[in-house]
Amino acid sequence: GYDASNHYVQPKEKTLSVDNAAQLVEKWRFTIAGYPTGSPAIADGRVFILATGGMYAVDLQTGEQIWANMDIMGTASPAYADNFVYVHDAAGQLYKLHAEDGSVAWGPIATYPDMPRCDGTSSPILAGSTVLVGHSCGLPEVTGGEDQTNARGGVEAFSTDSGERRW
User: Fold this and answer.
1) How far apart are CA 150 and CA 7, in angstroms?
2) What pLDDT was estimated at residue 73?
3) Distance CA 105, CA 97 (A)
4) Phi/psi of residue 22, nearest 5 degrees
5) What pLDDT is attached to residue 149?
6) Consecutive H or E run containing 49
7) Among 86, 103, 32, which residue's Cα sits nearest to residue 95?
8) Which end of the chain has a smaller Cβ tally under 10 Å, C or N?
9) Alpha-carbon separation of residue 164 from 98, 102, 167 (angstroms)
10) What is the pLDDT of residues 96-137, one digit of tens each?
11) HSE-CB for 15 with a 13 A CA cutoff
12) pLDDT tens per residue across span 27-64
């Protein structure tokens, strides 16, 4: 999204314009299971994609799959820092994955264990040694029906080193 406000505008872009956009050509295409609603994270020559059918790492230059973890599914955007990928899955579980092979460094950690049926649609945000995620507990099963006035939500912080809940 370019900046913290997700403006999706790159002010330093001087190559692409309305006049030459039609000349763009597809470099590669990668098929995933399910669909990705979040933005991919791109770092160290890899594209990290969370989709409703699994989590993927793809080579940025070739479009070839590097690894897949089909046990982690969701709609949020992954976050990358220091050779790790942080993922908040659809069930509200937080993971830290090794960027090289997709193996789990820690997790799953329930981001809001005090109430059942909270979701993980919030993308993780990294701030120093802290990973922040939001949660929403507004499903009809939680609120007692279609009325969402009793819905709950919040933000929680976890240690990037251990996954321990900070607040």
Assistant:
1) 31
2) 96
3) 5
4) -65, -15
5) 59
6) strand 46-51
7) 86
8) C
9) 18, 20, 9
10) 999 999 999 999 998 877 666 677 788 999 999 999 998 777
11) 2
12) 999 999 999 989 999 999 999 999 999 999 999 999 99
Taking the C-alpha atoms of residue 107 and residue 118, their distance in angstroms, rounded to an integer, is: 17
Q: What angle do CA 90, 110, 129 make, to 5 degrees?
A: 100
Three-state secondary structure of 19-37: CCHHHCCCCCCCCCCCCCC
Q: What is the side-by-side strand order in the sheet with 104-110?
A: 79-81, 84-88, 93-98, 104-110
pLDDT, tens only, 133-161:
987 776 555 445 565 556 677 889 999 99
Report DSSP state, residue 141: H
Give the DSSP H or E segment for 54: strand 54-59
Q: Is the peptide bond before 108 cis (omega within 30 degrees of 0)?
A: yes
DSSP 10: -
To which residue do tokens 């990668």 refer? 30
Tokens of 126: 């990294």
Contact between 65 and 74 under an 8 Å Cβ cutoff? The reply is no
Dihedral over alpha carbons 2, 56, 27, 60 (to 10 degrees): 70
User: Is 165 buried (19+), middle (13-18) or exposed (0-12) by CB count in 10 A?
Assistant: middle
